[in-house]
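Ticket #4471: structure export looks truncated?
Reporter: QA, pipeline team
Priority: medium

Steps to reproduce: submit the single chain below to the structure queue and open the exported record.
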Amino acid sequence: MATSTVASGKVGLARRIGVPIPAGWAVMTGDGGEITEPPDGENDSWALNPLGNTREQGAHKGYGLAVLVDILCGVLSGGGYSASLDRGQNMSWVMALDISKFRPVDDFKAMMDEMIRELHATPPLPGADGVLVPGDPEADAMDDRLANGVPVENGQYATIKERAVELGLEVVI
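Actual output as written to the record:
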């Protein structure tokens, strides 16, 4: 999960397909000025805004969450934290919990199902389709792609086709 307003991949996609990014996604690091033109991925003079975007909207909380994730992924692992890594490098952190050490697994699952039902039943803000829980956007994307196929951005199909030919593979689509 990105701890920024948006995942950096969405900025890269906007750059590749030639569309602007929404205001509030990114800023120039020198002056903090908002940008809507997707920056070059190699350009280090920009940064993504933290969750919340502004202090009034809780950016300090999003920033705190980002720092916590950086500590767990980079400092704890010894792999390095954001400022010590090149753009695009990321560290990972995995935690496994044995739920049975806390409570019966079936009770946990039942309460999680109840919680998710209640979250989905929460009235959404005006203009929103509904309240989402982690995994909902990905599940929706999976359903859409199973029904309609996987979207391929401009130029990507040609690259895939060229690589397939290089490998001696038959291109069937």
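Status: closed, not a bug. The export was complete when the record was re-opened. Leaving a note from the reviewer for reference: The beta strands are 26-28, 34-35, 46-48.
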